[in-house]
């Protein structure tokens, strides 16, 4: 294994055999394996097959009773559904996987795709906004998507009502990508069925969820990180205060993406979110020219050659793992105590502990106590 | 004369006798004497009387034929008109003169005032915007003026139609100042006659122009520098691209004032100027709170004790005078050549040459040639 492969943020080598591909999907679909854990398991065990073989014992060592890896029948069913939907699986690290996502700490290890995957090789701009947008907002979205599409930018959005719908429709011929919250074969909302079919024919539909999954509330923020992750910039067209679009915008900032917003009059509640973003430093958008002017130079994002590793942005969760392991010893201490000792919130600590348990590196003791695994 | 009085930017000592006050006004009303020249003449000659006595000879030495200082009858007529209009004259450097204007290189040496001059001692916010504003814009102006007035801020504007009118009306009871483009006794537009009377009764009207002057196009930008100069911040409520409000905003930036703007939808042409300002860095305004948050701390602008000189910001015109004098000698050179040699535009050079001619320090020769005065 080369040093490059050991670098925590470098994408893994993609699977090369049928068996390997099957194991990748099976590993990701196994309980308690999210994108970050998937990547670490692959790194630590060298292959998905090895990781799958090690998982039950790791779970047992972490005190998880009756842990089972995903049964092969589930994967067979998913592959069958994908075939019926004409969906193909894109693997992190392979040439057809969107390079822009490699940078993310929690990049999806695999994406289901229906449509023209070559759109993933073009520069993309995300457009998001209110579901219950005004006609003015929809018109703005159409105008921006048409003009940006005309200048060679793929429009990424979420197939929702309102702004998303307007942006996708306007960019159907120039190129548009819909990132779905549920399975790539589950169209939501139903009123966008025709649009979803048109996107499959002319554009691209993507999802990290298993085939057939009905979208639930928790899927949307996960999906939004892919929308912003695929794009050089995120344009918020119309958004109320405290709307989901604002969360996407903040995620985009965390991902180092440009965030732009279309202003509106302060008396228009549907502009409140956009005005807030602009007040906080987002670039004000009046036209497609404003968006293009704000884009990073192409060199910044797309000129990196595939054989160069990305900038070594150590994922926050890695730091946290190190902190936790340094503070734990063979004698158990309370989780509360650990939380006070390290620079993390309870919300961050929880998942990190699950990761470490699953890795078999820490053990839970009765009474909420934690210790290093013996 | 103390060193402080010699500092170019420090306000002069105000006149103390009736004769002195008469001479101040007469000097300012004399041909080719603008605010900057007035200040320099007063500094160089010690008193307005001395400056008036020296002016004709200075003009002759500068090659200006038949120069005459302002006849006393003109001043007597102006004072009579002022008495009829119940206007009083505020002198630069006196306690009732607005301290915020002292900082300006081209502060008016005198201002006619009708109404409550104590409003000049309170913190002020300027509101400007389109004459042909939308009802939304007028409503925004009313709301901001009411809320800012309620928090103790005097609202300064220009008595124009539209945004100005809405702002003045809303701030009538809390305190408002109208800076007039023409004479303080000449109400323009006529439809604002009642408002102008109400401002005289409850607020304050100001003008640097002679009594009775009908406002002309060239007066408005001069007037606008006083509007922004009086205020800590300038709020542009609604403004089209290339509108006068944008010029006021840029002047305000030059004066070191905060510039804020109310956004609007890009499809609304009446918001184009405001959106442009925000894109260029003006603070986005949704409410009075946004304005107050953007204000400089009181210490910055109002805590300077009257006996402390302002920060020594050497006026650009002074630099230019030095540059010109350094490049000229007894042998005449062409004005074009001078322009190429110094870091100034033709628009800046012209007034500087007139100043220096009037000062008797340079001479014009036939054929557009210039030389140092012998």
Largest inter-chain contact set: A-B, 21 and 21 residues
What summary fits the major beta sheet of chain A?
9 strands, mixed
The residue ranges of chain A in which pLDDT falls below 50 over 5 or more consecutive positions are: 1-7, 299-315
The pLDDT mean of chain A sits at: 87
Distance between the termini of chain A: 28 Å
Share of helix of chain A, binned: 40-55%
H/E element sequence of chain A: HHHHHEEEHEHEHEHEHEHEHHHEHHEE
Number of helices of chain A: 16
Q: What value does the Rg of chain A take, in angstroms?
A: 22 Å
The spatial strand order of the largest sheet of chain A comes to: 1-2-6-5-4-3-7-8-9
| Strand portion of chain A | 5-15%
> Count of DSSP E strands of chain A?
12
Overall structural class of chain A, as computed from helix and strand content, comes to alpha/beta
Give the overall form of chain A.
globular
- Name the quaternary structure: homodimer
Keywords:
homodimer; 374 residues; alpha/beta; 9-stranded mixed sheet; 3-stranded antiparallel sheet; 16 helices; 44% helix; globular; disordered N terminus
């Amino acid at each position: 294994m080369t040093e490059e492969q050991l670098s925590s943020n470098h994408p893994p080598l993609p699977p090369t055999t049928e068996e390997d591909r099957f194991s990748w999907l099976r590993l990701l679909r196994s309980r308690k394996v999210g994108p970050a854990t998937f990547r670490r398991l692959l790194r630590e065990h060298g292959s998905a097959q090895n990781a799958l073989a090690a998982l039950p014992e790791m779970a047992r060592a972490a005190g998880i009773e009756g842990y089972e890896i995903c049964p092969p029948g589930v994967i067979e069913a998913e592959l069958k559904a994908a075939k019926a939907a004409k969906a193909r699986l894109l693997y992190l690290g392979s040439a057809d996987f969107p390079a822009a996502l490699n940078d993310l700490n929690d990049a999806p290890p695999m994406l289901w795709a229906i449509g023209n995957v070559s759109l993933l090789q073009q520069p993309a701009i995300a457009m998001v906004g209110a579901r219950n947008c005004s006609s003015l907002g929809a018109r703005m979205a159409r105008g921006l998507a048409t003009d940006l599409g005309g200048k060679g930018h793929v429009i990424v959005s979420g197939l929702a009502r309102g702004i998303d719908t307007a942006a996708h429709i306007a960019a159907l011929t120039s190129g548009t990508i819909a990132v779905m919250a549920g399975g790539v074969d589950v169209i939501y909302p139903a009123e966008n069925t025709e649009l979803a079919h048109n996107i499959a024919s002319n554009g691209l539909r993507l999802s990290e969820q298993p085939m057939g999954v009905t979208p639930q509330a928790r899927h949307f923020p996960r999906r939004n990180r892919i929308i912003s992750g695929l794009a050089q910039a995120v344009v918020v067209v119309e958004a109320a205060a405290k709307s989901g679009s604002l969360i996407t915008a903040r995620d985009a900032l965390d991902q180092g993406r440009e965030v732009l917003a279309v202003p509106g009059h302060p008396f228009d509640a549907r502009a409140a979110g956009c005005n807030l973003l602009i007040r906080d430093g987002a670039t004000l958008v009046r036209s497609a020219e404003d968006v293009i002017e704000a884009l990073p130079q192409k060199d910044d994002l797309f000129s990196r050659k595939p054989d160069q590793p990305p900038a070594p942005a150590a994922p926050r969760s890695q730091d946290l793992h190190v902190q936790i392991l340094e503070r734990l010893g063979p004698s158990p201490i309370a989780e509360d105590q650990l939380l006070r000792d390290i620079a993390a919130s309870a919300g961050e600590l929880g998942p990190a502990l699950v990761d470490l348990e699953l890795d078999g590196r820490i053990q839970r003791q009765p009474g909420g106590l934690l210790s290093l695994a013996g």
